[in-house]
């Protein structure tokens, strides 16, 4: 008899004869509790997933005005880059998922099937999960600062190991990103593989490969396939990593990002891409159903000593060490850069970056918010996932009911967090959930449901299926069985799920970036705002803070779930010794139950740890107290947000501008009467267009063309009544509408790294036309105006100076060709590349280069001969009718009338009568001859896209 047949024989049949007879009686159990759980789970999914996604699908078939159309689909499908992005996404996601699964299996096998030291196993288990403790928004930065031309690892080795942009960078980022999820799934399933069959296989003389395939790989094949699917979709839907290192390797998530968060957000066309990203879910649902056949259920999990194998242990130990060193080396810079003055130019040690952030009261509030959201997500996420797992794995409900939950889990895998956030924005704008912590918590629970659900499902499925039936025979009800038997055995998995939800709630951004309000901002949205204003040192500091918090939580969970088998073995040994005494043996015989009940009780596998009951009671009590306190805190915070009476100001402005706003308001009687919430331009633009008058803000400062677009669509702004300064008679500013008034003018300029330029042996360019010269190939970085409005400044200058004909088209095409993989999707991307010496020349905002030069960095700027064109940002007041805050108009007036003097020092373009240009003003300031409208932006974007396609096709 082979070990395979023995193993199969140890599976619990689907319906045992005695259970079948019991269930065939007229008193068939109704499973009321499980039906109730199913209804709760179903209602939650319908309200927080199905209906919001239906709204997204409807958007894909409508125009912005609401009319039905197929134009969105024809427009997207007609683009040649769309098919290319699909192919690229499928390729890189599949390869990265395969690599991640193989590496996760190696690490899990080392922990569970080798005799390497216990301390080494614990270290592997902890370090394998380390990447998930960091926000993915920092992954791209970490790769660039590690493997870039001047990265930490590159400098240690002496030369770049490989090109980090395109497929290579995405593969590295995706593998690191998805490895922890694969590891959690596979390692969790390993705990429910009965290892006694490994011993049996050895005894029967099977070859090592046969033993491995039959006793290790076969029981895990279903989980590994699920891990591959989940890893694939995590990579398939991620946009944070491609934003930094995607280069010219277009992926579908970036196409979605540009539609949803680009310079011209188009939710309707973005919904089309989201629909296409949902199509693979159909395949995954079918695969999930097929994979159920591979599940192996054991009556009992045997704790046995594994056979000795020094060669096996050494090989697995070395390979696991190499894997973890390669993965974690990428994140060394996150531990290093917060303590360096300026990387890579001033490497002196400093605490100033950390000290500056921790003295910021706003950061303290944001950090508290993040902890609250993470803990509440973990608590309620555990309860929700446990309920869903019980329905599908510990019930005899109809197959359609159980499979429906599996199907929902598969669908959630394919829903990008950004799309889910947008769907929530559409669904709950104007509802009581808007701008509360609860909408963030619910979004996180839904977004990250799939992996915890698979973890608890694997755990519950591999437990003995006869426990509930045995409980009925012994007179226990379902709830008592759940509390006394199922939950204690599932407790380690539940704690891991708690950690998974907590960590992901701390690091997520895509699902919540549109949903945070002035009092509910979390730390990752702060990181996003810092990224947009080029505060990269602060990004690493906040990432380090998140890492420390998540390490503490994971450490506590690891402590709570540590293996106590040795302790239990000692207690069992003592108990057996006690039973051998004549007195105890006689007493045991006198109270011994019938053989039937003895067998039934044995099937329970009740924990024999005498302290477990006490620990469970303490844990339950502490959990209850925590829930009560956190719910009370959430209610208090939500109430405070609604009744504070302060003016809420939304802004996309840089730190210098926000400081000027605050100084003007504080010095003119409005101190502590306002709250400023910072957003990236795209995120705030999305909220404005989607929420309209339901926006939480009372006033905002934002790119002028965005304000105009939102007003045209939503009629959401009131005419300004308290701005007394008069605009200069320039072409653009003189036509500013009554509902907004410009706060700053953001000028573009050529930015250079003097050291990198010298190393490259080329002269500094003097114009945009110079950037098209062949000697600058591979040395420049410019923003793609499809992803960032900053790129519009350069395109404006080229169009005005050379037109959109052959000459202008050739210059812009050659610039894009020279930029290659450094055609960035964010306005701050080129400055980041220039600072890190990835390139010598970039295009960006002039005032940021001025600030870098003032700090002593090897950064300089060139005012191009074509002129410094600008985009204005404006202040506007929300028209909320009777609910309009009367202070908003007065504060808007103060920002313009009293704040412009300070703003001029950073943004040196005069906008109002009586203003004089400071000494750092550009000498070639120009305004575009046409009003800067969204229609004009679309025309220039089409021109830019055509040039980009030509450049990429020629490459």
UniProtKB/TrEMBL annotation:
<keyword id="KW-0812">Transmembrane</keyword>
<keyword id="KW-0472">Membrane</keyword>
<feature type="transmembrane region" description="Helical">
    <location>
        <begin position="123"/>
        <end position="145"/>
    </location>
</feature>
<feature type="transmembrane region" description="Helical">
    <location>
        <begin position="498"/>
        <end position="519"/>
    </location>
</feature>
<protein>
    <submittedName>
        <fullName>DNA-binding protein</fullName>
    </submittedName>
</protein>
<dbReference type="GO" id="GO:0005886">
    <property type="term" value="C:plasma membrane"/>
</dbReference>
<dbReference type="InterPro" id="IPR000515">
    <property type="entry name" value="MetI-like"/>
</dbReference>
<dbReference type="Pfam" id="PF00528">
    <property type="entry name" value="BPD_transp_1"/>
</dbReference>
<feature type="transmembrane region" description="Helical">
    <location>
        <begin position="270"/>
        <end position="294"/>
    </location>
</feature>
<feature type="transmembrane region" description="Helical">
    <location>
        <begin position="435"/>
        <end position="453"/>
    </location>
</feature>
<keyword id="KW-1133">Transmembrane helix</keyword>
<feature type="transmembrane region" description="Helical">
    <location>
        <begin position="405"/>
        <end position="429"/>
    </location>
</feature>
<keyword id="KW-0813">Transport</keyword>
<feature type="transmembrane region" description="Helical">
    <location>
        <begin position="371"/>
        <end position="393"/>
    </location>
</feature>
<feature type="domain" description="ABC transmembrane type-1">
    <location>
        <begin position="367"/>
        <end position="557"/>
    </location>
</feature>
<feature type="transmembrane region" description="Helical">
    <location>
        <begin position="539"/>
        <end position="560"/>
    </location>
</feature>
<dbReference type="Pfam" id="PF13343">
    <property type="entry name" value="SBP_bac_6"/>
</dbReference>
<feature type="transmembrane region" description="Helical">
    <location>
        <begin position="90"/>
        <end position="111"/>
    </location>
</feature>
<keyword id="KW-0238">DNA-binding</keyword>
<feature type="region of interest" description="Disordered">
    <location>
        <begin position="911"/>
        <end position="931"/>
    </location>
</feature>
<feature type="transmembrane region" description="Helical">
    <location>
        <begin position="617"/>
        <end position="636"/>
    </location>
</feature>
<dbReference type="GO" id="GO:0055085">
    <property type="term" value="P:transmembrane transport"/>
</dbReference>
<feature type="transmembrane region" description="Helical">
    <location>
        <begin position="314"/>
        <end position="340"/>
    </location>
</feature>
<feature type="domain" description="ABC transmembrane type-1">
    <location>
        <begin position="86"/>
        <end position="288"/>
    </location>
</feature>
<feature type="transmembrane region" description="Helical">
    <location>
        <begin position="34"/>
        <end position="58"/>
    </location>
</feature>
<feature type="transmembrane region" description="Helical">
    <location>
        <begin position="216"/>
        <end position="236"/>
    </location>
</feature>
<dbReference type="InterPro" id="IPR035906">
    <property type="entry name" value="MetI-like_sf"/>
</dbReference>
<dbReference type="GO" id="GO:0003677">
    <property type="term" value="F:DNA binding"/>
</dbReference>
<feature type="transmembrane region" description="Helical">
    <location>
        <begin position="165"/>
        <end position="186"/>
    </location>
</feature>
<comment type="similarity">
    <text>Belongs to the binding-protein-dependent transport system permease family.</text>
</comment>
